[in-house]
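Q: Start with the shorter request: fold the first protein.
A: Done. Sequence, then structure:
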Amino acid sequence: MAMKASFRNTLLSCGVAIAMTVGVSPSQSADVGPTSSVYSWNGLYIGGHAGWGEARWRISGTAGSGIFDQGGVFSTSLKDDDFFGGGTIGFNWQFDDLTPLGPLVIGVESDIGYMGIDESYTLNGDADVASQEYGFYATVTGRLGIAFDRFLPYVKGGLAIADIDLFAADSDGGAVDPTDATSSDETRSGYVIGGGLEYAVMDGWSLKAEYLYMDFASERSGNTDGDVWIHDNDVHTVKVGLNVQLGTLFGGM
């Protein structure tokens, strides 16, 4: 728990640092060093990110003897949170004269990484057990923003993929009942929506803070009692990241 709190505090500190950087006025920025008069977001970029995610799992079912041997309609909700991190690749197109507010930036972006969410639960006293574990994840999204020189607020949405391993069972006397146990280990797909703020701290280099919601819809599984288990899974994430345009790394690309 101390590590989780420390990581959350680190994220908060990074977010505050980005906000303070964004809050620097143009005249103050000029004092720091030379900058271009109009920043360009055009081009291919790569980056890395890290953050915190909360995975929510709703288990429900009505068939057979009832999930967890509860009988009839039964449902329960579980959640866990932990770190995640990975890499980013994307491309931006900037259109300078399409909005009165500033240049329109349209992009495509993909993230791939690992979620450290892994938790076991006891339910209904100690009568039932469940566990959820996330592994790799990936997103492929479109991005839309309006650039205020080096400041780019944006929204994004698209496809999310994640490896999700679930297990749930009735536990009689501390032992799992094999006739009332179910599991699902699948690469699940769904949608992702969210948005963020990105700020170019120097030419070609930018910091971002971002929120995403991933919904992996429903997955069904069964057991030998004839029950149908329904698993609804979604994830909320917040992260910070650093991007660099490839033209900056390799010169004139």
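Q: Next, the second protein, separately.
A: Sequence, then structure:
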Amino acid sequence: MRIRYGETVKDFLLILAAAGILVVASTSPFFLINIARMLLKNNKRTKNGNIDEINLARSLAGLNKNKIIIVRRENNKFIVKLTEKGKKIIHEIQFHDMKIRPQKIWDKKWRVIVFDIPEKNRRQMRDAMRIKLKLLGFYQMQKSVWVYPYPCEKEIQLACEIYGINTFVNIITAERIYNDDFLLKYFKLVK
């Protein structure tokens, strides 16, 4: 799964996903350039001028052409919405950029991810899940048992959805793991 969009386009898609729909007055034939200007003005990463509005407008036109967004004109307004394909790409972007934020004060609960993903037909998904858990900083207690000290349910559910393994994964919240000194040391926590 490869994300092939620049950061500004990703930001636009995420804003569109959060808003659900964008409605813009159609006072200009340069609609996409006006959206690009708005994005560039509000995007701190682009204030150094690395991305110009014409290239961004072309990217937005490409999103429309590839049926990731729908741009239609209605009653002197432009309406921009995500398609189903666009929604899948949003999941990919969220998944690719996924990070789990540690709590400022640990709630002293362990999140245990347990999975039994069949070897037959789903080996790649199982291996991908292991790699993702490792990248997120989970500790591998056993082959298919991973531990993390902070809330991570939404992130794990998104990973399961992306990999199509929801029925094979369980998330357990445990107040105690016997002899967890090695976990406390690994995550640099004090009980």
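Q: Describe the second briefly.
A: Residues 36 and 42 are 10 Å apart (CA to CA). The longest strand covers residues 69-74.
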